[in-house]
Amino acid sequence: MGWGFLGVLAFSFTVPFTRIAVGGLSPLLIAAGRGTVAGILAAAALLVLRQRLPRGTQWARVAVVSGGVVVGFPFLTSYALTTTPATHGAVVIGVLPAATAVMAVLRGHERPPKAFWVLAALGAVAAVSFAALQGLGGLHLADLLLFGAVVSAAIGYAEGGLLARELGAWQTISWSLVVAAPVMIALTAAALAEQPPAATPIQWASFGYLAVVSQYTGFLAWYRGLAIGPMTQVSQIQLTQPVMTILWAALLLAEPLTWSTVLGGLAVVAFAALSVRTRLPH
């Protein structure tokens, strides 16, 4: 649970920092560039520490992780956050724990008790309602992109958690970044040629966080937690992420922080605490 929370804490800054970065950098450059920088760091770590290559079907599973957390989630959220505030983006975090739990059951054959599903569902409803109180209207293109990001991340989290039990936590995200690196490098070059960046130091610093922490080091802790598992329980720590995300949005972006936000956040944390304490049958 400690490793899982450390990963969630790292990820909680992703939406606000993406919102800051898109003010001076194109969504394509942010999504591809963070994968490129993280891919270089990952390749260096794998080479220096002389890690063995994945074997057989592990390559296909690495590709699944890469498609979910290196390509899908960063690209979809970067484009969505060009038109929607960070608090709106918290909807992604609200439904992601439930989606990850479903993927863990489908892929990892985990069978949590009914109480877990009840609490997980209530937590997801609380998280979505919490984000909805921030002024969400009907569904827009940004919402569809965000929900697509949820599906991508849930698949990548569940498969990555299983693969981490075989390859190791940091090795799993490292190989996933290396697999995607050629495409990320090509897209980064295309983004730079199409629209030369004109970002402020703060926007570049935000991009640096997204590349080094959100795309790489945060996953070292997150996949470690998922590997220890059970994934269905560890995934519910994510229910605290919208609380932290909206808090950072208020502090960093001056987005409004109201009593409804405080009360909604307390409800989300309460359901998260209850669901993670639900034990799986032996």
Describe this structure as you would to a colleague.
- The structure is a single chain.
- The chain is mostly helical.
- It is built from 12 helices and no strands.
- Helix 5 packs antiparallel against helix 6 and helix 7 runs antiparallel to helix 8.
- The chain is globular, with a radius of gyration of 18 Å.
- The two termini are 19 Å apart.
- The relative contact order is 0.23.
Sketch the major β-sheet.
Answer: none
Helix content: over 70%
In total, the number of strands is 0
Instruction: Give the termini separation.
Output: 19 Å
**Estimated structural class:** mainly alpha
Mass-distribution shape: globular
Q: Point out poorly predicted stretches.
A: none
Reading the helices and strands in chain order gives HHHHHHHHHHHH
Rg, Cα atoms, Å: 18 Å
| Mean of all residue-level pLDDT scores | 86
Strand content: under 5%
**Quaternary:** single chain
Helix count, DSSP H or I runs of 4 or more residues:
12
Describe the SSE topology.
Blueprint: H1 2-11, H2 14-21, H3 27-48, H4 58-80, H5 86-108, H6 114-132, H7 141-167, H8 169-194, H9 201-228, H10 231-234, H11 241-253, H12 259-276
